[in-house]
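ok so for the tutorial part 2 we go from a plain amino acid sequence to predicted structure tokens. step 1 is just haveing the sequence, like this:
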Amino acid sequence: MEKERHVLVVFPHPDDEAFGVSGTIASHVKNGTPVTYACLTLGEMGRNMGNPPFTTRENLPKIRKEELKEAAGVLGIQDLRMLGFRDKTIEFEDEEKLTNVISGLINELNPSLIITFYPGYSVHPDHDATGAAVVRAVEKIPAAARPALHCVAFSNNCEQEIGEPNILNNISPVAEKKLAAIRAHRSQTEQMFNNMAEKLKSKDPQVMKWITNERFWTYRFEK
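step 2 — the prediction. this is what the tokens look like for a chain of 223 residues:
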């Protein structure tokens, strides 16, 4: 990965950054690139409360906020923005309002690269709505001045419809940071790590491939 002027990451939930792009974030930080993570919600509607449970529905937003801050610290994110939207309602937000929030971040930060979800191919309605807002904001910028837009997709039909990912980042040098960032979201990931313990210990090839490879699609704007 080349050094960027500034990387802006926009996702709706705490832990969205950890699973798919934390190695890429850590690599950019290692390169000396400033990174801003704009997280739209606190994931307060998440179903997991830890395993065994260690929090309550009422207290979950506070827990997830602290987990997000811990993960950001692990990755070296210098600028964490919590935007205060409500979990599982992003698809119902006024589109112009949401687009303007993203446009404000772009105007302030002048990023050379933005990372978000590929709208329509990211499974969760909050994911798709967030990606769509980022696309609308970038579309407002003249084509020659637009930052690069790298999108995460993982729906079953994504490769059939938008092709193979055209960006593959091997993040092996920062794999431990990625694992630490995922672990930081303890309320959501503790059971997963319990289930994967032996595979991680033995460096199972499939698990290691999932950890060390992060893939993106460059968003294709209509001409």
